Structures are given as structure tokens and as C-alpha cells.
Amino acid sequence: xxxxxxxxxxxxxxxxxxxxxxxxxxxxxxxxxxxxxxxxxxxxxxxxxxxxxxxxxxxxxxxxxxxxxxxxxxxxxxxxxxxxxxxxxxxxxxxxxxxxxxxxxxxxxxxxxxxxxxxxxxxxxxxxxxxxxxxxxxxxxxxxxxxxxxxxxxxxxxxxxxxxxxxxxxxxxxxxxxxxxxxxxxxxxxxxxxxxxxxx
Amino acid sequence: xxxxxxxxxxxxxxxxxxxxxxxxxxxxxxxxxxxxxxxxxxxxxxxxxxxxxxxxxxxxxxxxxxxxxxxxxxxxxxxxxxxxxxxxxxxxxxxxxxxxxxxxxxxxxxxxxxxxxxxxxxxxxxxxxxxxxxxxxxxxxxxxxxxxxxxxxxxxxxxxxxxxxxxxxxxxxxxxxxxxxxxx
Amino acid sequence: xxxxxxxxxxxxxxxxxxxxxxxxxxxxxxxxxxxxxxxxxxxxxxxxxxxxxxxxxxxxxxxxxxxxxxxxxxxxxxxxxxxxxxxxxxxxxxxxxxxxxxxxxxxxxxxxxxxxxxxxxxxxxxxxxxxxxxxxxxxxxxxxxxxxxxxxxxxxxxxxxxxxxxxxxxxxxxxxxxxxxxxxxxxxxxxxxxxxxxxxxxxx
Lengths: 200, 184, 204
Prior knowledge:
The complex is a heterotrimer of chains A (200), B (184) and C (204). Chain A contains 11 helices and 2 strands; from the N terminus they run ααααβααααβααα. Chain A has 200 residues and is mainly α. Chain B is mainly alpha-helical. Chain B has 9 helices and no strands. The radius of gyration of chain B is 21 Å and the shape is globular. Chain C is an alpha/beta fold. Chain C has helices spanning 3-20, 33-41, 49-57, 71-76, 96-99, 114-125, 137-146, 157-174, and strands at residues 46-47, 63-67, 83-84, 105-109, 131-134. Mean pLDDT of chain C is 75; it is low at 177-196. Classes of the chains: A mainly alpha (200), B mainly alpha (184), C alpha/beta (204). Chains in contact: A-B, A-C, B-C. The interface between A and B is large, with 132 and 123 residues.
């Protein structure tokens, strides 16, 4: 029964090898999707390229369904899988700041690494910037500490909040996502920018 | 006949120069989803990126002034758990190498600054650094970035993941108009 | 048909299957005796004193300490931040929001582990989650955290390190000397006993 590392005796070396292999897959998937191009990523917000939405939701749904099925056949114990803890204010404000960073910088931390790997100089500066940002946060933590800790709601799941089964929620999300994919492809036709999409 | 052959030769050369097209986004999403699922199955947690950057920052701070890192209310929280730190750093090493291999295979390796014709290279670099700064800061406050909080959080149906995802994309959409010159 | 349509059909079919699957086992409401015994055997319901000290020092908002002894004992001494729910009143209506919830990790404790284990079995059988028992109870808390004994001159460096950490934790809880220093001490490593515990998360 999984997850393997916390439940079985997996040596530390093997665990780190797993980290590297998972990273390889992560990097290849991001690069192949085109996330190593900031103008492709930013296309999401102008409608000319909605790859971000498609990849993001397809990936989340695939993993979500995978977890449900693995759990059903008894291969994974969902009680052990990490569920992000919800701190209301820091999640929202942190998200807003990240959103601003996204539209200004054109990357997020994961994609900036793949972009830097294929030689994008702007991505390297983005990484440097994010280091500075983290450093500033750490140095000024006293000011944010209360905000950082406030509104703690625990590791709650959205299906519990809505009071529905995990499976129903997955189906609901899939229906919403397919609708969004449809809208996204219409938007791509409407806001077509051949000049940009050819370049990237 | 020789002319035609020469034409074909030139075409082939052009084709070699032209990078391979990107993967179909839905297919790429499924691949990414399986990588994420493998991570859950193997380690019980999803993917992360900003955590690795933080490890590097903490490593740098510690090597310059160890006392300062220990006394810092935030960094000191992460001084202890070495394994988690190494795990994320190795994962990101994988991301960089994976990205490089994929880029090399598709013929996309090229040192350059990607920017819209509307802005200069210099401005693009300023913006990228500023964006990175905000993203770095926000990822610490929001306990994870697009990978660790939004994508991973969504796939385990965590409310935090959905809230963070909506805050990130909502803000980016809301601000898109003001930064359109940077991209289109 | 384009890729989007194919994908949509596949996803909706799989989603429909997911929706009709019975509720997964790990969140089942009732446990049978075997499952209960298994959890006790695997010690998945235990929190060690070192872990607790670590959680308290870090002011972890995710835990709720519940003292299940009677109110007289509680008023004499109780762990910082603990609330008192005597075992007899555990299933009272007014305590339900505390013990039947999904957001916090409840840690029951008593002097030893008799009362707290009873509390745990009661709640677990009702299907409530997030309830744990402090391993060794207050007795062990005093032995290991408040008055840690030196492992002796033959101790390995690991044991010495443990002792030093416990000593530091002791200062924090008893306030006997520079307790403020402790907030910057490195976190205690998790106890190397295998137990069911959520893994630490992605970026945070």
C-alpha cells in the first residue's frame, strides 16, 4: 500500500533518487507543454494561447482521478497523502501577490526552472528575483507573522466543505473543466495572434 | 532532377532548424498528471518548486551568517528538516535536467531573452526580476506556489489549493490589461 | 473529432465512474474490532512527548490538547493550552464540536495512558477522526521533557543530541532560564518510530 516512502522502509538514497526522477518527469512535461516560454504562458491572460488552463486542469484532474481509483483498489492510503493546510488570509493574499508576479514576470517558479534550462535569460532573472523575494519575506517575517498564521482552518478538503463525496466533486470539476476548455478554444480563435504563436 | 533534390535538401535543412512543435496541451496535462500521481503514490506529497528556491536562499543565508539564519523567525523553522530540503532541491535538479533534455530533443536550446517587440530586452529583464520577487514573496506567504499549492492542492481537493489557484489566476487576469505591452 | 472532444468524453466517463464508486475505505465511519486493533498495534494513534514539545514550541495552530482527567487534577497542573474534558463527560453534546471535527489534531492525555486510550477508543469507534493519544501521558512528559535524565557517559552522540534538545524544551516549558532562545532552536526531529502521519507538504 502506498504512499511507499512513508509506509514502507525506503532508504534515504532511494527516496532522493525518486525525487530526481519525479523532477525529470516534471521538467519534461512542463517543457513539452511549452511552459518554458513566458509569452506562451502569458497568452492565457490575453486569450491567444490557453495552454496553461488546459495543461493545469487536465493534470489536476488526472491526478485527482488517479488518487480516487488507487484508493478504491487499496493501493494508496489517502489519510497519509498531504492535504494543504488552509490559512484563509495568507492563502488569498499570497495568491494575489503571486498573480501579480505571474503577469509581470511571466513565469511561476516551476516553469522558470525549465525556461532557464533551455537558455531563457529572463527566466534566470526571474529565479534571482524569486530568491530575493523569499529573502525579503524571511527578513521581514515579524511583520507578516500574524497574517501568516491567522484564519487557520486545518487541512480541509473542498468536498468536505460542500458536503459531497470526493467522486461527485471530481465529476463536477471535470464538467466545469470541459466547459472551460471549450470556451478557451473559442477564445483562441477570437484572440488569434499568429505573429506571437508562430514565434513561440 | 538535381534541382529537385537540392530543393528537398534545403527543405530538410530548414526542417532541422525549425524546433519541433509543442506537445498537445491535453496530452501534456495527462503526462503531468501522471507524474504528479506518481509523486503522490511514491512519497505521499505532490510537486513543489518554490520550496527548493527557499532551501537555496536559506543555504546562502546560513553560509554567510549562521547566527542570523538561526535567529530569523522564519528561516529557522526550516533549518532542521534536512531531508525535505534535499528532496525538493533534487526534484528541482531533475526539473532543470528534464527541461534541458526535452528542449535539446525538440531543438529549442537557445540563449536569449524572450520579449515582446513592444518592450526592450532590458525592460523584460527588469519585469522578470520584479515578477520573480513578487512570486517569491507571495509563495512564502501563501505556503507554496503554482505547483505546490495550486496544482498539488487541487488534485488532493484541498480548499487551500482552490483558493490559491483562484487568487493567482484571478489577479493575473485582472491586471492583464495594464501589462499588455509586455506580452502582445 | 478534435482532441478536446475526445478528452472531454474520456474525462467525463472516468469522472462518472469515480462518482458512483462507493465511498473510499479510509474515510469509513465505523471501524470494526480488527481495524481498531490494527491501528492500536501500528501505534498510529500515538503522539510522542518529543513531538508534542515540538508542536507546542512552534505554536502549531493545528493541535488541540484535551486533558481527560477530572477537573481537580486539571486545575493542579495541565499542559499549556489544554482544555479539560473529563472522560465521563467526553460524549456530552457540548464537546462534540471539539472531538468530532476535521480541522484540528486532538491529543488526549491523562497521567498515564489508561484514561486517554479509553477516550481515543470511544471517539474512534464513533468514527471521529483526528484524535490521538499522548504516548506515556503526563508521567512520560515529566520524565522526558520537564526533567530529562542524562543518557550517561557511554551515550552515543545521537543520544546526547536528543538530551540537549529535551533540555532546551524543558527550559521552554518550565521557564527556568532563557526560554526565549528556544524559539530559534532547530526543530526536534520526528521520533524514529513508524507511525501513521501525514507527510510534510509540497512547497511549504
